Amino acid sequence: MVAAGSKDGHVYGIERSAVAAHAGATPDAKALVVRYKALVTTQENADTPLTSDKMTHFCPGSQGGIEWNGPGYHHELGLLYANSIHWCTSVKLKPIDQMKGAHGQAWSGMDHPQAAFGVLDPVETWNGFVTAVDAQDGSVRWQVKTPKPMVAAITPTAGGLVLTGDLDGDVLAYDAESGKVLWKDGTGKAIGGGVISYSASGKQYVAAAAGMNSGIWPVKGGPASVYVYALP
Fold this sequence. Notes:
By secondary structure, this protein is mainly beta. It has one domain (2-230): Quinoprotein alcohol dehydrogenase-like superfamily (Methanol Dehydrogenase, Chain A, 8 Propeller), CATH 2.140.10.10. It contains 1 helix and 17 strands. The strands form 5 sheets. The chain has a 4-stranded antiparallel sheet with strand order 5-6-9-10, with no helix packed on it. It has a 4-stranded antiparallel sheet with strand order 11-12-13-14, with no helix packed on it.
């Protein structure tokens, strides 16, 4: 199988042979075969049509359910791990006769001059999740709710850890089987990038990219840094 995290808040298990055939882009290519889709964040009004009559509140919001960092796989446990976000959006469309875009400007049909992609819920209401999903059937083995959205990379290790980071700047190590936090260290810089484990000269290290700054995400990471950890 191939596993992928999606903006719609699901982890998908897809038949690998179908993916290979689909990539060939031939007229008779097999359609993608989805074995399962596991919901790993809040879902609300996901299939509700947007209208020009009223605001439609939906989750995942316009920032998506799973961001740029995809799930990680633990071979021995047969689990996929995914970070996700809960940050909902409200959208009201302009009437069709008023839907006019301008070159070089964002245009989505949203009836709001300052929020082209919808009105995001206040950050006081947002949160995130770290979820372990059975890689064979898509069932959720465990899920941890976090105070803020989780957008950083997630990396399981053979030693039974799941490594990631959060927007408060903490580098985190979860127990791969239970989801219990076993260790954390504060960097003071929002983490939204890579978190990896590697070996050098026979010694194991963990490295985390910290210092996320974004015009969309209301966090300030300051100058970017890479934090590297190792056992004594």
